[in-house]
UniProtKB/TrEMBL annotation:
Lineage: Bacteria, Pseudomonadati, Pseudomonadota, Alphaproteobacteria, Hyphomicrobiales
Domain ABC transporter as annotated: residue spans: 4-243
Classification via PROSITE patterns: ABC_TRANSPORTER_2
GO molecular function term, any single one: ATP binding
Assigned keywords, A-Z: ATP-binding, Nucleotide-binding
Any Pfam family: ABC_tran
SMART domains named among the record's database cross-references: AAA (SM00382)
Source organism: Kumtagia ephedrae
Source organism, top-level taxon: Bacteria
Record's protein name: Sugar ABC transporter ATP-binding protein
Transmembrane intervals: none
Alphabetized InterPro entries for the sequence: AAA+_ATPase, ABC_carbohydrate_import_ATPase, ABC_transporter-like_ATP-bd, P-loop_NTPase
């Protein structure tokens, strides 16, 4: 049984059809690349899976259960987390504070409950160690590298023991060394049995970590190929339309 099944998903915004009868699946512990040109429907697909809005047609099935998501908290309850391109981090807070933002650990008896700062620092340290990241819980996010920021965002998904992490352009606008850090974080998630859907324009990154590559073009799926049976040239052709389908 697949962890995620997307079945004949279509999405329209008024007269604009953003997705048309898209089918694919993601297995447990699998890293799947989602590629396509601007306007191909990648962001819409991510938002549907993440619960930002429901599909116009079709079904999203998680662990064999048909799900009707209308808001992100519903998708999160089924083990789906998202790391958006802008990471949604608060620069003026520490790494630990960002990890627990909106999910703070408290101690005491109501109405005298207070933040348990040490518990959050200790748990954040455990998560960074698990990801083998050099990020430190007390460091301010505004002083961090792009790779460290990604570690904070990914650690946040581990709080809820996510089964599937959707990553939107995680290696955009960061240095080569930081890209290597992020790709290693994805491998760590995979090693722990977490599935990852990687949305990216960067071909080398996708081929470095993905088991399969799904290509969308103008809202339709044109390819779903194992990485070891295709090439960057073929995927580029599928994205641009030079190759019709594969």
């Amino acid at each position: 049984m697949a962890l995620l099944d997307v079945r004949s998903i279509s999405k329209s915004f008024g007269a604009i059809r953003a997705l048309s009868e898209v089918d694919f699946s993601v297995q447990a512990g699998e890293v799947v690349g989602l590629m396509g040109d601007n306007g191909a429907g990648k962001s819409t697909m991510v938002k549907l899976i993440a619960g930002n809005f429901p599909p116009s047609e079709g079904e999203i099935v998680v662990g064999g259960k048909v799900c009707h998501f209308h808001k992100p908290i519903e998708a999160r309850a089924e083990g789906i987390e998202v790391v958006y391109q802008d990471l949604a981090l608060a620069d003026n807070l520490t790494a630990a504070q960002n990890v627990f933002l909106g999910r703070e650990i408290r101690k005491g008896i109501w109405p005298f409950r207070v933040l348990n700062k040490q518990a959050m620092i200790d748990r954040a340290a455990e998560l960074f160690a698990e990801l083998k990241s050099e990020t430190r819980p007390r460091d301010l996010v505004k002083k961090m590298s792009g790779g460290q920021r990604q570690a904070v965002a990914i650690a946040r998904t581990r709080l809820s023991n996510a089964k599937l992490v959707l990553m939107d352009e995680p290696t955009a606008a960061i240095s080569v060394r930081q890209v290597a850090e992020v790709l290693e974080l994805i491998r760590r998630l995979k090693a722990r049995g977490v599935s990852v859907m990687l949305i990216s324009h960067r071909m080398p990154d996708v081929f470095a970590v993905c088991d399969r590559i799904i290509v969308l073009r103008r809202g339709s799926k044109v390819a779903d190929k194992r990485t070891d049976t295709t090439s960057p040239e073929e995927i580029t052709g599928l994205i641009t339309g030079a190759i019709r389908d594969a």
